[in-house]
Amino acid sequence: MGNDSDEILSRVSHLEDGDSSRDIYDDWSGNYDNHLIDEFGYVSPEIAAQALSDEIDAPQVAIMDYGCGTGLVGQALNQQGFTTIDGIDISQGMLDEARKKQVYRSLICGDLTTRIALDDEIYDAATCIGPVGCSSLS
Ligand SMILES: C[S@@+](CC[C@H](N)C(=O)[O-])C[C@H]1O[C@@H](n2cnc3c(N)ncnc32)[C@H](O)[C@@H]1O
């Protein structure tokens, strides 16, 4: 299967309600950062992290990063000084990339369209930047 940015974008944008994006993101995980940053100029993680930082002046707050992907949001949050960041994503390939960034306290593989056994009261804030295929969350 090819893995250039056009082909993978086409696969992502043709997801139907109820389709799982796990396989697509597993396939994309190794090239995701290059495609998003170098080819598309993706800046949403930095914008989100700046917005959270503008609202919360306490770097030790616990943050859950829903649909964390390869960890670009965690990285941007960390650059804003946040230190307690957990992430959850449906794709183990994306989570493996996120782990390499060494900014997450814990990383969980899970489907956000289902009920997840998670003590959400331990979180002070959450980010959810770009999960495709999670229409039930919006
Ligand atoms: C466009 S990427 C965004 C990743 C990251 N937040 C970022 O800004 O780079 C979408 C992410 O959502 C994840 N995702 C899609 N559907 C999901 C679901 N049902 N449950 C959990 N994660 C999901 C994908 O695996 C992928 O990592």
List the defining traits of the structure above.
alpha/beta; Rossmann fold; binds S-adenosylmethionine; 38% helix; globular; 4 strands
What does this protein look like?
The protein is an alpha/beta fold and 138 residues long. The protein has a single domain, classed as Vaccinia Virus protein VP39 (Rossmann fold), CATH 3.40.50.150. The chain contains six helices and four strands; from the N terminus they run H-H-H-H-E-H-E-H-E-E. Strands 3-2-1-4 form a four-stranded parallel β-sheet, covered by helices on one side. Helix 4 packs across helix 5. The chain is globular and about 40 Å long. The structure holds S-adenosylmethionine. The site of S-adenosylmethionine has 22 residues, from helix 4 and helix 5.
